[in-house]
Amino acid sequence: MTQDQTPPGGDIERIRLRDYTEKAYLNYSMYVILDRALPHIGDGLKPVQRRIVYAMHELGLRSTAKYKKSARTVGDVIGKFHPHGDSAAYEAMVLMAQSFSYRYPLIDGQGNFGSPDDPKSFAAMRYTESRLAPFAEVLLSEVGQGTVDWMPNFDGTIDEPAVLPARAPHILLNGTTGIAVGMATDIPPHNLRELAAACIQLLERPATTAAELTEWVRGPDFPTEAEIITPAHELRALYTTGRGSLRARAVWTREQGDIVVTALPHQVSGARVLEQIAAQMQAKKLPMVADLRDESDHENPTRLVIVLRSNRVDADGLMSHLFATTDLERSYRVNMNVIGLDGRPGVRDLATMLREWLDFRRQTVRRRLQHRLDHVLRRLHILDGLLVAFLNIDEVIAIIRHEDRPKPALMARFGLSDEQAEAILELKLRHLAKLEEMKIRGEQAELAAERDTLEKTLGSEARLTTLIKKELQAVAEEFGDARRSPLVAREEARAYSETELLSAEPLTVVLSKMGWIRAAKGLDIDGEKLSYKAGDAFKCAVQGRSNQSVVLLDSTGRTYSLPAHSLPSARGQGEPLTGRINPPSGASFAGALMGEDAHLYLLASDAGYGFVARLEDLQSKNRAGKAVLTLPEGAEVLAPVRVHDAAKDLLVAVSNEGRMLVFPVAELPMLSRGKGNKIIGISGTLLRAREEYMLGVVVMAPNAAVVVHSGKRFIRLKGTDLDAYRGERGRRGNKLPRGFQKVDRIEIATDRDA
Questions:
Q1: Residue 27: predicted pLDDT
Q2: Are 638 and 604 in contact (CB under 8 A)?
Q3: Which phi and psi (to 5°) does residue 463 adopt?
Q4: What is the rounded CA–CA span in Å between residue 548 and residue 155?
């Protein structure tokens, strides 16, 4: 078919597929945005919520009425206003009835309407009953007072309200969430009294900014006693921009040594929290927790008990870990995106939103007053006609009795309007009594006074503002309550590290000469008495705790870290270090270190150089370790030595030539890596030839003693004995006595050396 040919059936509109799909998508997008997902700033309701509330209002299901089956209400909603699935309508209805979901519930439900643990566990609509909650009057009380714009329903048979005349900023009271096409909304609930105070502040000082309004609206107010821990400056930024996030944290106490959680964040399930904690217990990540109990009941809606293994457990640290790893602390996104009075969606800050709602409220109140004024004027007009009739009652009766068309006759005779004449003709005989005139004049006086008041209010913006303020105060007085979610400053939650989760049991790590390692529980382990593989023997042993790491120093000056709890048991012969780390080829191990991160150790080479380092600086996460001690040519690594008091301890160094030097440890630098400074003078030439080198070094307290071994003989030096060997750092030192100049080793004296 060519382009200019017309198919049978007449003219057909041609449109490009691109234009058609674009238009169809945009139409669908606007439908989702305006008619499904986003609330209106006026009443804070989505269309389905508005239709449910209005349908219940039309059914007479006010807070004082009897409950009616929810299925009856849902049937009216989907049959008259909302042509969608009944399950979706019922779920929206249930949500408005849940006191744990809505800060101010709009529906009073009877039956199973879900629980905080499972909000969607509600019974079918044929089993539940419902009616409007008292708070719903805030939305509905002015519906029949000329305040509503009406629009036809989906089939055009009846009208429905476009927006309900809310007497309070409901958009912020209960909040809402929704996902549209290309946009979303997340508005948290707030406290009615705080919002009313903020609105009054804006009425009195319209230039008040969003940041200034936070003096009255301090933060959201969820239907739970959980703490809002977001800092005040972040909340201020949230209200200033209309976007952000906030954090809520559970409330807990100590009872008889147990931790009892009494309040959970909004929409957090207690059962889910217990599952999360139990999963960590099964994974052995919470060794300090013995048991979990859910003692929640109708008197205590939230009561989760965490039983600790002992009273020595740090409860604050444990809860900080649980806040970081479970739903005991939850973040909420805030995106105050609503449909404005202009019918367009947009994100608004707190001041803009409240200011726009007050414009809506001002229009609503003006329309209500004008509607009432029109009614009063009509009634006064009719009363004027009735008064004329009563003053001329006999003539009026005569006209009615004798005239075929009494209405035109009455209008012509007394100058009445059509409405007045109609009211006279509809009078009942019992209203013709003498006293009726007094009633008319009394009603005229009351209505005239009301008319004057209405006209004054409508003619004065100040009077209108005062009226809006008084009505806001009345709503806050009737339905307001104290804040439920406290605003508390808390430290950021921190999860336990892997080592913190481990029990701190005493441990002895044993290293063999061939590089095999193992760990034994306790501190009274003699490594030399353990069994070793053929050709292997005891090298060294260090003591610490199972939640610490052991640091190994090899012959090249590199250090390696291994978690102590992961080491094989000392009941066997251990395992080679080469299976866990990657030292250089041919490297052996000079020693091991273990303790707190702040502990100090002396690292030295037999070239006579060394420095003091913190244990935390020696840690390494790499299998290849890290270079710490730089070795001069021909030098070897000496075993690391613990420094207990860097300000007071003495360093004793001995060369293979029998020279000894004593000086304060404080003269050595504090480094994280390097060669260090000279400890004792050693000739470089002799070192390379291995003819002279520093044999050993110890660190001792000033009142301690040192033992020098030479073959089977030894000498014990203390106090004044050491004075002969004191000197400046880097000197060659003085010769030991004859017979002790061929030194084998040097060590700190113990009780057995006495």
A1: 62
A2: yes
A3: -65, -40
A4: 74
pTM, two decimal places: 0.73
pLDDT tens digits, one per residue of 432-444: 665 578 888 999 9
127 assigned to active site:
yes
DSSP classification of residue 216: T
Amino acid at 417: S
Residue 327 CA to its chain's centroid (Å): 9
Amino acid at 728: E
Count the Cβ atoms, other than its own, within 10 Å of residue 482.
Answer: 7
Q: What is the pLDDT of residues 508-547, one digit of tens each?
A: 999 999 999 999 988 888 888 899 999 999 999 999 988 8
Asked whether 403 and 388 are in contact (CB, 8 A), the reply is: no
Find residue 228's DSSP bridge partners: 248, 487
Share in percent of the chain as helix, strand, coil (round to 5): 35, 25, 40
From the candidates 20, 127, 332, 532, give the one annotated as an active-site residue: 127
Half-sphere exposure of 61 (CA within 13 A, CB side): 26
The tokens of 127 are what?
């089993």
CB 166 within 8 A of CB 314: no
**Of 543, 484, 446, 440, which Cα lies nearest the Cα of 302?**
484
By three-state DSSP, how is residue 98 classified? coil
d(CA 697, CA 604): 8
Q: Per-residue pLDDT tens for 277-324? A: 999 999 888 888 999 999 998 888 899 999 998 888 889 999 999 999
Computed on alpha carbons and rounded to an integer, the radius of gyration of the chain in Å comes to 44
CA 603 – CA 583 distance, rounded (Å): 18
Which domains are seen in the chain, by residue range? 45-165 (3.90.199.10), 251-327 (3.30.1360.40), 353-479 (1.10.268.10), 641-754 (2.120.10.90)
In the numeric block, which tokens belong to residue 257?
Answer: 């040594």
Q: What are phi and psi of 423, to 5 degrees?
A: -65, -35
